[in-house]
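$ fold --in a.seq
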Amino acid sequence: MTYALIDGNCFYCSCERVFRPSLKGKALISLSNNDGCVISRTDEAKALGIKMGQPWFEIKHLEEKGLIGLSSNFALYGDMSDRMMSIIGRFSPCQEIYSIDESFADFSGIAEDLTAYSQKIRAAVLRETGIPTCVGIGATKTLAKLANHIAKKQPSWSGVCDLTQLDRYQLADMMKNIEVGEVWGIGRRIARRLGELGIYTVFDLARMRPEAARAEFSVVVGKTIQELRGISRIDLEELPDPKKQIISSRSFGLPMTDRAGLQSALSEFVAIACNKLRQQNSVAASMQIFIRTSPFDKGKQYGNSRLVTPPCPSADNLVFTKYALRALETIWRPGIKYKKAGVMLMDISPADTVQGELFPVEPEHNNRAQLMVALDGINARYGRGSVKTGSIGFHDREHWYMRQELISQGYTTSWSEVLIARA
């Protein structure tokens, strides 16, 4: 097998630059929910010493040195990702979309030179979306990820690193110069423990016995070592497995104290989670809701959750909304500044394996499947929230929606914000 990993360079920032060419060459960052911390940064921002995850308030003063911070425009990034992935899919019969900006592709059986072939992919993505990419090629998915890291870090590879063209000695020399924490699946905690065992580089890890790694760490680390040796142990997943839990939550733009606002927020989170549940043709047997204050708030701290179980597994917005609001009544406390809330659907199973109740407690629940189909269809066509449950309401949601004071236009997702070309 031969795998390729294609990903967009500083993807969020690159999406912004596509529609604002004046940002090219500038120190640019994208910020997380509520403009909290850095989640994407350009090379120019790195040169200013900005780290991933660094809070915005700590670096805001660097605006004087040319730093530009933008709120994350997730609708735009998702649309650009769909376009990029569809282009990549034209070049491989098998594709696994790994994340919003990363895609594995099966290069087995491609007759032409793989480096030249990868440059064609890069050129097509850049031409049709404006997103710059790098490509890593390897005999396993882990080696492809490693090759992609090399392609990004070493300009001499011109954006494509093909490890299949190296002999074992060249590959070993390259591995000796890469820290073990750069390996796919090796996080900071495991990297620290590996360091305690004298394993500091990718080469050191590749030499470790897989059996010892499984005993000391996990089966996954054992497979990773075999992958680094060129033995494929992680297959390409063209269709992701259905999620076992679905979470919908949000930190509020401003602290919230009123119960009506929390009811509205939780109702919307239920609608989002249930929509995801129906998209994978599943139902959930239980749900947990939670509300809490900010851990950084110097005032009164409070957090609580409640688990609810409807009579029958469901994917119905109305069912879970009713139980969520009932549960909220038992944990809401007045005078508290709530900063985050959310719902988590659990005990998920395929919808076609659930047997209906012979004597249902609430018979109308079994007759609303078509209503949910209609709701999803309308919202897909006219935009999320076009039709919604009454408890979401029409409250002033600026308090509990994300704070995005620096967000860009919906260049590809809103007709009113599409760029207009003038002669």
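$ fold --in b.seq
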Amino acid sequence: MPEFVVIIGRSVLSFLVLFTLARILGKKQLSQLTFFDYVVGIAIGDMASTISFDTSMKFLNGVTSLVVYTGLSLLMYFGAMKSFKFRDLVESSPSILVKNGKVMEKTLAKHKLTFDDLLNGLRVQGAFNLSEVEVAILETDGQISVMKKPQYQSLTPNDIGLNVAEDHAPSLIIIDGVFLEKRLQYLGYSKEWLLEELRKKGAEDIKDVFLAQLNSDGSLYVDLYNDEQKLEQDNQKPQLTANLRRIQADIEKIAAQTNDKHAKKMYYNQSEEIENVIQKIKPYSKEKPT
């Protein structure tokens, strides 16, 4: 049998074996690569490639090595799940790099990180000033997690006592002309409602729609196959301006009720920022004539 045929056959078989073993190992290899996961992944991949072209190696011996490595990896994972001490030995544990705005130099040196590495990790998390950082932690996968001090954290509706309606992720209900009826029913809408909304957008039928997405506020985004066809998307900008005005009024009401001077100033500053946003979008928030 020609050698290239043997190599093709070995490559296909080793690929199938590697695919099966990767499925057994699970998605942790992709989502949370620790140093150990990284090394094991490289070793298993190198074994699989060697099996493909090294005809001097018996195929069964190569597969046995792959299975042994995979089995040992699974044992390590199960041991880490059952024992904290074993998990700390295998995967280590998160380490504090910054505490109360102060850098832990010994921890940096232990993990062989430079000051530039730390600053780069903080910037990725949106922290450009060390004094703003309450805690920065080096995770087991090498990522840096950051918690800012309370005064530097973004203001949320809950912080100012605003009630916000429950939200759900936008959901695609038409993909490439295919209607996902069960998904629409799950969200509480009927096919008749959808067809009526599509007509408002310029579509005569579902087959005219390339993509349709239902947003959490009930608005519908539609993209037609024919881009030259007139498509009137719901204009939500006037509603956006009205919502911003309501939020601004609520903030000013809270500011008037508080006796804390610093809090009062913060609320009024937030109100001014909202006003600036309103003025910026004002030229675009007018409804188009029909």
